[in-house]
């Protein structure tokens, strides 16, 4: 769950775009659009959902583990580990 007002706003905006994409997909299917057009819209929706998932995951990791003081060397290592985990998640969820 996004915690900051900026993260919430970004998530809601993404969801609205996803809703619009899903509605467009529904119209395409109802009108008998070509398979290639439907597949392209499905890929766009999948990308949008994956982007939302990345954002929520990043927000969760930073909220759960990212409040440590960066002046402490152990906390810097924690922040680097969080950054590494986020980069890994982003590389797998495209």
TrEMBL record:
<dbReference type="GO" id="GO:0003677">
    <property type="term" value="F:DNA binding"/>
</dbReference>
<comment type="similarity">
    <text>Belongs to the FrmR/RcnR family.</text>
</comment>
<dbReference type="GO" id="GO:0046872">
    <property type="term" value="F:metal ion binding"/>
</dbReference>
<dbReference type="InterPro" id="IPR003735">
    <property type="entry name" value="Metal_Tscrpt_repr"/>
</dbReference>
<dbReference type="InterPro" id="IPR038390">
    <property type="entry name" value="Metal_Tscrpt_repr_sf"/>
</dbReference>
<dbReference type="GO" id="GO:0045892">
    <property type="term" value="P:negative regulation of DNA-templated transcription"/>
</dbReference>
<protein>
    <submittedName>
        <fullName>Transcriptional repressor frmR</fullName>
    </submittedName>
</protein>
<dbReference type="Pfam" id="PF02583">
    <property type="entry name" value="Trns_repr_metal"/>
</dbReference>
């Amino acid at each position: 769950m996004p915690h900051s007002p900026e993260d919430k706003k970004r998530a809601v905006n993404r969801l609205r775009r996803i809703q619009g994409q899903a509605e467009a997909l529904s119209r395409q299917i109802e009108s008998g659009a070509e398979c290639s057009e439907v597949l392209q819209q499905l890929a766009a929706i999948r990308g949008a959902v994956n982007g939302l998932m990345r954002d929520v995951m990043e927000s969760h990791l930073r909220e759960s583990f990212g409040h440590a003081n960066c002046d402490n060397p152990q906390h810097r290592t924690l922040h680097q580990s969080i950054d590494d985990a986020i980069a890994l998640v982003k590389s797998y969820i495209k």
